[in-house]
Amino acid sequence: MRTSLLLVPAALVLALSACKPATPPANAADAPVAVAATGPSDAELLAQGEYLVRIAGCNDCHTPGWAQNGGDAPRDQWLVGTHVGWKGPWGTTYPANLRLKAADMDDKQWLEYTAKLHTRPVMPDFALRTMREQDRLALFRFIKSLGPGGDPAPAYLPPGQEPPMPYFEANFPPPPAAAPADAKPASAG
User: Fold this and answer.
1) Whole-angstrom distance, CA of residue 72 vs CA of residue 88
2) What digits encode the pLDDT tens for the residues 119-178?
3) Cα–Cα–Cα angle for 21, 27, 33, nearest 5°?
4) In this structure, are strands 91-93 and 85-88 parallel, antiparallel, or unpaired?
5) Where does 61-183 show beta strands of DSSP type E?
6) Distances from the Cα of 182 to the Cαs of 7, 136, 179, 185, 186, in angstroms?
7) Per mean pLDDT, which range of 14-18, 43-47, 64-68, 98-102 is the poorest?
8) Where are the domains of the chain?
9) Contact assessment for residue 136 and residue 166, using Cβ atoms and an 8 Å cutoff
């Protein structure tokens, strides 16, 4: 009986030691050869790109009538840019026709372009720059799958130049006046 009681802890120790992660080999040459990942298929990239276009708000600005119609517009109108301007202290900007923008680019050019993109408001270029490369590639592949279409967006208008209707206007309040240096905070109570 005493021998069987000693076998239980020994069996438990052996079982638990089998669960420990393997120690990596000291020499990389001794490591097992890893099979290279092939990455997503074209169909997966297209599906991912369409998903990103839908959820990242690309259609909100770059597809005519998208937001006004609750996210419903004919696919042949997707990402053709709009003539609705965004006016603010920076001037007036227009959502680009992404299908024409991407038409003459290849994967590498698009990835370089989007990695360094700096635009005027209201485009959240920072969001595009921080996307994973695979996400930016998926966007590109999806945009390319739509084919070229539409006309170029209107050109940027500098501050002080009145854009034609329609446009959104951003009016920012002036910054609060600085409190005098000798002002004392109001007491609570």
Assistant:
1) 28
2) 999 999 999 999 999 999 999 999 999 999 999 999 999 999 999 999 999 988 888 887
3) 70
4) antiparallel
5) 85-88, 91-93, 167-169
6) 82, 53, 8, 10, 13
7) 14-18
8) 42-84+94-150
9) no
